[in-house]
Amino acid sequence: MKTIINSQRLLDSFRELVAIDSPSFGERAMADELTARLKKLGFAVWEDDSARKIHGNAGNLFATLPGKLDMPPLLLCAHMDTVAPALGKRAVAEPDGRVRSAGDTVLGADDLAAVAEILEAVAALEEQKIPHRPVEVLFSVAEEAYCVGASVFDFSVVRAREAYVLDYDGAVGTAANQAPTLLDFTVTVRGKASHAGFAPEKGVSAISAAAQAICRIPAGRVSPEATLNFGTIQGGTATNIVPDACTVRGEIRSLDDGYAFTLLDNLKDTFRQVCQENGAEFEIRERCLFHAYHVPAEAPVARRYRRVCNRLGHAVSFTATFGGSDNNWLAANGIQGIVAASAMHGCHTCGEYTYVQEMAEIAQITAELLCER
How many CA atoms lie within 13 A of 93 on its CB side? Predict the structure, then answer.
């Protein structure tokens, strides 16, 4: 039985959600609204204590709904926060079905289109009395801040072993099944201050040492599967003083987890060698924000997505992405998922937009996934 999606209700829901301010770490109003909507659909809802852990004002929402099909639950995931400028968002609906931002903020289709689609998919199944498997929903906080909300979520409460994360741009039917490890680093080089005019030879320029190291380290797309970027460099106090400190910040992304750490080790070795040559010292602080994953295109979670999309007339394309998502944390906790297109375009800009038809198609795919073996 094909699920009938109420496009007008979906649009109304999306516009109402867009009007709620939900910047990263400030999702309180959105969490309250979604809790009420989930409970109205029959979900049991639990808000975790991540607000305390990440210094936000709301926690991740986890909700469960029993199913009438004797199948394992599926997890549907989207995030509640939106990137800046995020305050005072307004969704402007055009006659052709395009929904855009008013131009002075983002629209918030990333990721509120997904939230609205999940709510509509379940609402359509329930009101049409279509049997579905048990449903688990995770609406996370602070995803745009490198998935910090999901990083502190207790995944032991999740029964589902397969998930669909609605948080990807591109045509309907597109999905990411591979994403990178992301490391960030801060290198501090310490030299020796001296007067630049009277006694430059008595100083050790931290900026010069840092620059030499940077020049020796391949950056940009260092391989087909990895990137390395030096994002900021700061140092010095005045033009007449040999700088005794310089700080360099950057990141490494790699679809191969081990290779990411190899690149980091090479970076450390280069800074160490250059500092020794210059009589400087260095220290490095590093963080792994999330680890890489790869879901084979023939894995059950991917094959189900392909079957449903093809049956509904959508071509399927699996791709690797160099962006992270909550799916990195699902994978790290033994849940196999893919990141599916969710009808968002021009993300992270004030020109962001979506289409009602696309949102309806993705809501229908989501509903059918909950009924598919």
Answer: 14
Nearest Cα residue to 146 out of 264, 323, 341: 323
Token couple for 279: 């009589």
> What SS3 class is residue 277?
helix
Q: What is the CA radius of gyration of the chain?
A: 24
Q: What is the pLDDT of residues 39-62, one digit of tens each?
A: 999 999 999 999 999 999 999 999
Alpha-carbon distance values, 8 to 38, 116, 172, 192, 341 (Å): 19, 12, 19, 67, 21
Which residues make Cβ contacts (< 8 Å) with residue 251, sequence separation at least 6?
Answer: 182, 183, 184, 185, 228, 229, 231
- Helix or strand holding residue 321 (H, E): none
Mean pLDDT score, 141-145 = 97
DSSP assignments along 231-268, one per residue: EEEEE-S-TTEE--EEEEEEEEEESSHHHHHHHHHHHH
The CA distance from 136 to 333, in Å, is 15
CA dist., res. 138 & res. 106, Å (int)? 23
The pLDDT tens digits of the residues spanning 187-229 come to 999 999 999 999 999 999 999 999 999 999 999 999 999 999 9
Q: Which domains does the chain have, with CATH numbers?
A: 7-179+292-369 (3.40.630.10), 181-290 (3.30.70.360)
Please report the pLDDT score of residue 3 as a whole number: 87
DSSP 107-120: --HHHHHHHHHHHH
The residue behind tokens 């931002």 is 101
